[in-house]
Design a protein that fits this description.
Elements (H helix, E strand, L loop, with lengths): L2 H21 L6 E13 L7 E14 L4 E10 L4 E14 L2 E9 L21 H6 L4 E10 L3 E8 L4 H4 L5 E9 L3 E10 L4 E12 L2 E12 L4 E13 L2 E12 L12 E14 L2 E11 L11 E9 L1
Antiparallel strand pairs: 1-2, 1-16, 2-3, 3-4, 4-5, 5-6, 6-7, 7-8, 8-9, 9-10, 10-11, 11-12, 12-13, 13-14, 14-15, 15-16
Length: 314
């Protein structure tokens, strides 16, 4: 499905839901959105310093029946200065705890996809694993989700990263299976991406109890030449009242000849620390300081960064 067809589909979903919601006596249309403004300071890279828009997204949801619903969103791409499709989904629940969805969505590889929106992400930046491995993967396709009190699983087929750029008619398939405990969850992910000739495998862990939230993830990638890359991170968030503190450590390494990104270093590590305040339920201010190192240790320092962010949800 090309970009024009995707835009047309999303427009139809938006207009249909909006018109029905306006004229219905008991409207079930749910509108929501968020935006964030950042001020970034990169030590040694002054051309990137200053204010900039982060994410800007507007979305809607509507129940068509007890088992069918639609949702869609438009997201602002600040690099290209235009709005693009963030999601456009037709969701069907044929049975309790089973959902089938068709459309465009954040690919559920690992757990970081739950925090792509800046309104949900505790930090200003994404983990190094996301940045180097799949860059907030979002694609059109189909997915099947199943869950109960002890387990959850999601299976999906999507176009594949950079499908149009590589002009390869190859689709990606993957899954994530999770085991749920009282305060925590452990998950295992698998995916292949023929467009980049990569195969992913990963483990993730989350812990939520009282004021403490911990997330951890490790992911391996093998390419067609059997060269490997690995990334990981561990992060913690502690809430006390309307304030919160943050800490995260992550790393990335690749074998010689992997060549996923010609500009990348073979080893990177990043330590981030920060905090923030919840001014209102949907208004947050955050600060994050990054320490970046090029050789995977703390002996060769790279460009550090300081981020300020204000996020507003509506």
């Amino acid at each position: 499905m090309n970009k024009a067809k995707i835009c047309a589909l999303a427009s139809i979903l938006f207009c249909t839901a909006a018109i029905k919601g306006i004229y219905a006596e008991d409207s079930s249309v749910k509108w929501s959105g968020f935006f964030d403004l950042q001020h970034n300071t990169y030590h040694g890279l002054s051309e990137k310093d200053g204010f900039r828009w982060g994410q800007f997204e507007v979305g809607l949801e509507q129940d068509i029946s007890e088992t069918v619903s639609i949702e869609g969103s438009l997201a602002y791409d600040h690099e290209n200065e235009k709005f693009e499709i963030g999601s456009g989904l037709l969701k069907i629940e044929p049975f309790k705890n089973i959902e089938i969805a068709f459309g465009q969505f954040d690919v559920p590889l690992g757990i970081d996809h739950n925090y792509y929106p800046s309104i949900d992400r505790p930090f200003v930046s994404t983990p190094l694993l996301n940045e180097k491995m799949y860059d907030s993967w979002n694609d059109p396709g189909a997915r099947l989700s199943v869950e109960n009190n002890m387990y959850n699983a999601v299976f999906y087929v999507v176009n594949g990263q950079n499908l149009q750029a590589n002009q390869e008619k190859a689709q990606s398939a993957g899954c994530r299976i999770g085991k749920v405990f009282k305060y925590s969850e452990i998950g295992f992910s698998l995916a292949n991406d023929p467009a980049k000739r990569d195969s992913f495998s990963g483990l993730d862990f989350s812990y939520h109890c009282n004021n403490l939230n911990i997330l951890a993830e490790i992911m391996n990638v093998n390419n067609s030449s059997d060269k490997k890359a690995r990334a990981y991170y561990v992060q913690a968030k502690y809430d006390f009242g309307k304030y919160f503190l943050l800490a995260r450590y992550g790393g990335y390494s690749e074998e010689a000849g992997y060549d996923r990104d010609s500009d990348s270093h073979s080893q990177l590590s990043r330590l981030s620390a920060g905090g923030g305040i919840k001014i209102e339920n949907n208004v947050k201010m955050r600060i994050e300081y990054q320490l970046n190192y090029e050789d995977g240790s703390f002996s060769k320092k790279s460009n550090d960064a300081l981020f300020f962010q204000t996020v507003v949800g509506f």
